[in-house]
Amino acid sequence: MIDQITVDKVLETANSQIVEVVSDYVTLRRRGINYLGNCPFHNEKTPSFTVSPHKGIFKCFGCGEGGNALNFIMKHDQLSFVEAIKALGGKFNIHIEEEEYSPEQLKQKNERESMMVISEYAGKYFSKALNETDEGKSVGLSYFRGRGFRDDIISKFDLGYSPEKRDALTNEAVKQGYKLEYLEKTGLTIVRDDYKADRFRGRVMFPIHSLAGKVIAFGGRILKTDKKTAKYLNSPESEIYHKSRVLYGIYQAKQEITRHDMCYLVEGYTDVLSFHQAGISNVVASSGTALTPDQIRLVARFTKNITIIYDGDPAGIKASLRGIDLVLAEGMNVKVLLLPDGEDPDTFAKERSEEELTEYIKEHQQDFIKFKTSLLLEDAKNDPIKRAQLIQDIVRSISTIPDSIIRSVYVKECSSLLKVDERVLVQETGKLQRKKLEENFRRNTTSNERPVNYQQQPETPSPNQTVTNHFELEEVEVLRFLVKHGEKPLSGLTDNGEDITVGQYIIHELKQDDLLSTNPLYNQMMESYEPVCADQSVIAQKFFVNNSNTELSKLASDLIGKEHILSRIHSKFGIVTHEEEIYHDLVVKIVAELKWKKVKVLLKEKRSQMQQLDVSGDHDKMMELLQEINTWQQVLAHISKELGGRTIV
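^ thats the sequence. predicted structure below, dont judge the formating
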């Protein structure tokens, strides 16, 4: 764990030199006080990516990405917070102080590092054996070239060859000082008593890389015809390799997946190589294993859009349909491409140019519901039982989708395709949803707790759904003032005549009237600043932009970096060229603006309740509501006066 002093030092240094950080990835040119370039996070021809050195932030006005230097590194290289701090520390020669490890943690860390080192060594050994030995050239290199792979693709993926000799790698590694213990733990060497042998001997090698580009495992293909021996052999599970969490080619593809906002998923190693050779680099492979939730979440870090490409083998496709449901359950947008009979992604990509392949995918990829329905309808034909099973299968897939709006769209489409009443599908989907909720409830509650009646429960928004915030513009404007002016003094607002800061005023006003946002991140921003809001030496902009909470720093960078929509109250001050000149008056008006709108919404709710009571005839309740409405109208009148006599409708 990195201590906070070191984190602060790295953030301060990196943000003050953000142009240097971003220039490692983007060609920037100066425009006024800022720098401009093409955004690395989406495909654009006209530059809309701006770096502001005096604010220490970047902002793309095309795709909306923004933040500080740390946010940029984390997003671009898909690094964790700690990994990004270490990367920036290394760039600026800042020694990273970490807390001491326990003996057990130290042992695990050293073991993991040793396994990583030996895997890197093995990768270089296999590559050298392929390119620099007679056996490697005549057997391994001739195989890859015979499959049509160019030398640049062989180099890009660090392909290699494991010699036929029983213990060639093992002997050479031990000779170089690597321990047999770690050769065995990584699966490179098989050890049984006095017997030692290379696991992959006589195979061409496909190194498997981590997101950071480190070799963590291998896949090996045998070149002999031997029915008793597996065609492909993979490294076993280890401390550094968990096959369910890894996708082949993710390191080489991650930047292009982000740029195109799309990922193509194929099955095997050579499928990935052929797509890259054809010019399409945003492609990864599940390496012949069934797709897992961890693999899907790995793709989701870069894009929400995925197209699964299947061989023209109906039996294999039906066995893989479960993978689609897993993708849907993670909130991904999934399409499916079925290649012609006898084709696989490897051969199909080799026969086409980048333009032809891209066009074919675009024209033939199908929405999952159409694909699954047409595939299963062929089996069902006119059999009513099979047709009913098909409908249940499709509904089960739709019910896994976390977003209720997307679910409803698919229900409507399914109703049209299957000629089934939409209400029936809605009912069946609802049943499956409730069943899933009940199962989750049973798992997460003790037996003596009272069960919930899910029939009467409103649907809880999933993590992929956002609650509508009717006060978004006003809340954003208040937070923008907090970030830009939080430490500045305000006078004449307290009974004793003492000055307070902008931050103190905003936080006090919103807390005393219980004006919490529906956006938890907005509330978190207030809470984080509250302990220091009275200290004028704490510059609010630096506090937020350099914050170790990456979500807060990104929000702060976005608030001060983007073109914001001015609140209506700005017009009362005429043309404002420098907000700093009138921040004292503006902050009071902006907080009042938020209060005014919230009271307006509350009054609307009270009047709606009054109309309902008018029908039911509950006179006591009506009188109570009338008093509440009268009180809130007085509050609204007071706020309107502060805002310059706004008319109450």
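Residues 444-466, 563-577, 645-649 have pLDDT under 50 and may be disordered.
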